[in-house]
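DM from R.C. (forwarded with permission)

"hey, sorry to bug you on a friday — could you get me a structure for this? deadline for the figure draft is monday and I only need the backbone to look sensible"
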Amino acid sequence: MRGNESEQMSELSQNLSRPKLSDAISALRVPDFRRFWFAGLASNSGGWLQGIASPFIMYEMTESGTWVGASVFALMIPMAIVGPFAGPMADRLSRRKILLVCEVLLATIAVSNAVLWWAGVREPLIYVAVNVIYGIGNGYALPAWQAYVADLVPRDFLMNAITLNSTQFNAARAIGPSVGGVVLAVLGPAWAFLGNGISFIVVFCTLLTLPRTSPSPLADRTDSQLSQFAKGWAYAKTQPTIMTGYLAATFVAILGGPLVQVHLILFIENVFEASEFRFGLLMSMYGIGAVVIAPWLAAFGSRIQRSHLLVGSLVGYGCGEILLASTSFYWAGIAGIFIVGCAHLVMATTTNTTLQLRVPEPVRGRVMAMYLMVFTIGAPLGSIIQGPLADKFGPQAVVLVMGFCFLVAALILRISGKSETYNFKD
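My reply, with the result:
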């Protein structure tokens, strides 16, 4: 009888440890995180309404890839500049309060874009200036947002919550551009900007329903934020896992960041010669790929070594870009962007999860701020370089070269052994 009970317990243990697709949404069973997740989905979908409208109006006003790249540069560089202040702030102050203030600021800026366009303002420098202010607000919001996830779920749910948070960002890439393409074609860019403004109000109202976070043990520190940021950087430099994450993010930001922000509008205008709706569909395919791969990654990704996920994602990114750039057939481009979307979610989720599991709570905000700074420096740097190159050589040639560079980057991480630093016990 005891033998039968032992066998039954062993079988039960195996069943519990065996990953299931239902495990992909386990963190959504936490009510606070569930509300935060759906509000974030609404807000980030709205953000992509603006994300598709901004390069569209810039190209419409200037017909220049350089100007499109400059607008991305103006949006993201301020996010990097405020990082040394935003990271320590997310460690010292209530992350919920930071987000409440930022949502109001970002809503105001988004509505201002709509008012400017309705008023007939067609000066690209004005919209670049607005992007600078928008970037500052986002720069303070993003580290607090990433770190706030850990405040809402128990540690056992953290990996799944981070995966779902990354999935939410990328699901918005599917929803926002699809809706944005229709809004652009039917109502015009001002309504896309207005939709983004409304989405920030949704998050603001949701945050009011979430519990207030406990005071940080760093709240009473008197040293400057820059000093605290320097200490966070000093810690990060001693951790090979964190530095590998930053290196991988650098590859993705510089080589792949300009793809959506700069090149896709050039592909639509100069390669595929398609409509605004097809532009929205092309951009949304990035998010659709992420959404399709997300349930598999959330349920089964923990059974695959993180180093393999990291290297494989860079290879996938490169193959997707090469496919996009190798043809003028629109639907082949759709397939290429789908592959890139899958690869981006795997890379972002693997790296984000690895960092959050590795980093201690007192420096979480600063480590994540530095991670985000890699993107906010790398992506505009890539845009300001790749935009003029696309004007001179064409977007297909530039994206093709970037695709091969991704394959080289994957090889570097694999041969150097840096990817192996991801394989630690939780």
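R.C.: lifesaver. Confidence is low (pLDDT under 50) at residues 1-17.
me: no worries. The chain has one domain: 31-209+226-422.
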